[in-house]
Structures are given as C-alpha cells and as structure tokens.
Amino acid sequence: MKSQITNALSDFFFEYETPRQVLVRNRRVGVVCRLIQLGVLAYIIGWVFIYEKGYQSTDTAVSSVFTKMKGVGYTNVNGSERVWDVADYVFPPQGDSSFVVMTNYIITEGQSMGKCPELKGKHNCSSHADCEGGSFKRTGHGEMTGVCVNTTKTCEVLAWCPVEDDHNIPDPPLLMSAENYTLFIKNSVTFPLFKVTRSNLVEGIDAKYISKCLHDPKEAPLCPIFRLGDIVKQSGFNFETIAREGGAIGIVVDWTCNFDVDVKHCKPTYNFHGLYGNPAETDKARASVGYNFRYAKHYLEDKVQKRTLLKVFGIRIDIIVQSLARKFDIIPTLTAIGSGVGIFGVATVVCDLVLLYLLPKREFYKNMKFKYTDTQVQPDSESLGLDTSVYYTLEANPRQVRGTDLSNDPDSEAGSIETEVSKK
C-alpha cells in the first residue's frame, strides 16, 4: 500500500500528460476552422478591447448639484400689475437639483374659514337630502353641512371661502416672460477609485466667462448658464404649450472620462429630455394633464385669519448626473485575454463535429482521432515482456488506408498509417 501511494504521488508530480493530436488536411474543415478563429479574434479586438474597453477598470462618481435661477417676470391681470422675482416663482427656493419654475397660475385672494356653496359640478343637489351633513367628497373643498343652496343648486360646505374655481386656465400663460429666465448649474463629482475630483467649472470657465456666456451645444457647450426657453426647445417641447399647464424636463450632466489621458480632458456634456408634457399627446390620451400644485400665503386682516391661494402651473426640472470613468488595469486586461483564448476552443469543437458526424469519411476520421484498446490482450502482452506504451505518428500514404485509393480526392486526409516508433 505504501509503495502504491508513493508511486501515485511520483506519477502526479513528475509526469506530464499531453493530448494526442491528429493533423487533418481537409480544405473545407481548415477554412471553417480559420474563419471561426478569425471571428473570435475580431470579437476580442473589436468588441472586448475597442468597444467595451475590457482592458480598463471602471468607477462611478459621487456627485453634488446646486442651482440658481435668475430673471424677473411681469403680469397685468385685470389692471393689477405685479413683478415676480426668484423668491416668487421658484419652488423650493434652496437651489436643489429638482425644482419647479412657475409659468402660469390661478389665484384666489381673501379666503377665510366659513360656510359657502360648492362649485357647480362638484356636488350638485336639489334638496337638503342630497347633502349628507358631516361627510366629505374626495374632489370637494370641505365638509358638507347638510344644506342645499338654492341659488347655486350645490351643497354648502365648511371650507376656505370663497372656494377656488380652477375650471378656466389662463391662456396664454401669465408668465411667458419665464422663457428668458436663466439657470446656473454647479456640479462637482468625485471618483473614489481613482481619487479624482472634477467640477463643471473646468479650465477656462472663470467669473469673467460666466458673466457673459450662455449655453449653446455648438458655440458654448461648457457654459453652465442655460436659458429656460432653450432648455424647453432642446427637450423637444413648445414653450407656450408646456408653460400653460406645466410639465417636466430632465437635464442630464454626463461625465464619461478616460483617465489614461490627462485629467483636464474629463469634461461634462449636457443633454435635455422631455419627461412629461409632450405637446404631441392629446388631452384625451392622458389621465392627468400637465403639472401643478397649490400653496397658500396666510395673513391676518382685522384679527381674522385669511389666505391667498395659488394654483401653480410650472416646469419641473430634474438635474440628473450620470458618470463613468475608466483607467487601464492589468487585472481586467488579463481576464479579457484569458476569456478570449478560451473562446478559441469553439473552433476545435465545431471542426470536430464536422469531421466526426457530417463528412462522408467520418468513420475514417474517428479511427484516426480515437485509439481503441482491448483489455483482454493486455495480460498476454505483459507476460511476453512487451512494452505496451507504443507511440504513433501519422504519415502521408493514402494508398495504404484500408486498401482505398484516395490520392484523387483533393480534400482527403494527409495520411492514415500508424507507424510503430519504439518497442521494447
């Protein structure tokens, strides 16, 4: 037992096995093999290394964004003039990456808590029995008192009175001047893996340049100041259409960087996408039209609490930062090369299938590829003192294979005779 273990260990550590190979001279199989190998090579070079850049490691950025709007609006509604500044038309005012710019509104002034009739269509009635006291309607403005108001034929409610009437949206939008507002975007990104920090205020973008530049995809692609009308236009919307009832636009700040070159070449690009409010859609095709919300300004008048209610229609802007940085790394490079070398084995598998199962001489190729042994003959060979480890090579002599003349076949194999090289 000890000697067997020793022999097994000796064979494992001090012997080397290599597979037997058969050289087949067949034009069709040879062409198929080389075409497959050429395709694999094109895949490795073209797709893995050039397109997918498999020789580089990747990292995404940690980013921060803040914004600042500038511009003044003017309205004149029924002879009431008003100037709107940033504090009036931007929500929220803190400069977040997601905010709303008001472009239209419905104002209800002087509301106070009390009892008043509902709007027509909200809860119509013909008698007090139609108005259940203490109940609410989801689309109503307050709690029903149980009284049907004869003048309006609607139920009376306890609410902020007079109730808001938002049936008629101003057209054209009241704040069409918002088209000329400007948006300043400041963005900073950090790639932790490569320890690189960049800002969209890249080299050459200084205070003097910012004071006079306006973003243009061709003339000033790095300028961080954007005109609201240009943002809407580049997102595919019509400003008047989206300003009337509101919508949403996404600004994508794209950082795609290659740190195999100088870091100063890592610069952002800006893309604009219409997210909601496509004017090509009809109102009937949409469950809810536009984008709006309400907010109120409360005050006291003669010790009575009152409020001014605004239903705001606006353009919601979402600033989205996407990033991908690459740099050469030996680990993904070796991994890509190793996987590519492994794929080369596909050519061998395909050619073996063609040789062994599809060609007319498949039985001949099987005899050449596989060596069959008879275990019953082995004891007799050992008793005669013969060495059963016989090595073979293939030589070109097609006339000696099974007595068949194959010399006239241009695609025939190079040889088929097994010649004994060594015997004990």
UniProtKB/TrEMBL annotation:
Functional summary from the UniProt entry: Receptor for ATP that acts as a ligand-gated ion channel.
Compartment annotation: Cell membrane; Membrane
Quaternary assembly: Functional P2XRs are organized as homomeric and heteromeric trimers. Forms heterodimer with P2RX2. Forms heterodimer with P2RX4. Forms heterodimer with P2RX5.
InterPro entries in alphabetical order: P2X1_purnocptor (IPR003044), P2X_extracellular_dom_sf (IPR027309), P2X_purnocptor (IPR001429), P2X_receptor (IPR059116)
Signal peptide location: none
Binding site for ATP: K68, M69, K70, T182, N292, F293, R294, K311
Catalytic activity: Ca(2+)(in) = Ca(2+)(out)
Membrane topology classification: Multi-pass membrane protein
Chain intervals for the UniProt region annotation (Disordered): 401-424
Organism for this UniProt entry: Seriola lalandi dorsalis
UniProt protein name: P2X purinoceptor
Record GO biological process: calcium ion transmembrane transport; response to ATP
UniProt family annotation: Belongs to the P2X receptor family.
Classification lineage: Eukaryota, Metazoa, Chordata, Craniata, Vertebrata
Transmembrane segments: 29-50, 336-359
Glycosylation sites per record: N180
GO CC field: plasma membrane; postsynapse
Gene Ontology MF term list: ATP binding; extracellularly ATP-gated monoatomic cation channel activity; purinergic nucleotide receptor activity
Keywords, alphabetical: ATP-binding, Cell membrane, Disulfide bond, Glycoprotein, Ion channel, Ion transport, Ligand-gated ion channel, Membrane, Nucleotide-binding, Receptor, Transmembrane, Transmembrane helix, Transport
Domain of life: Eukaryota
Disulfide bond sites: C116-C161, C125-C148, C131-C155, C213-C223, C257-C266
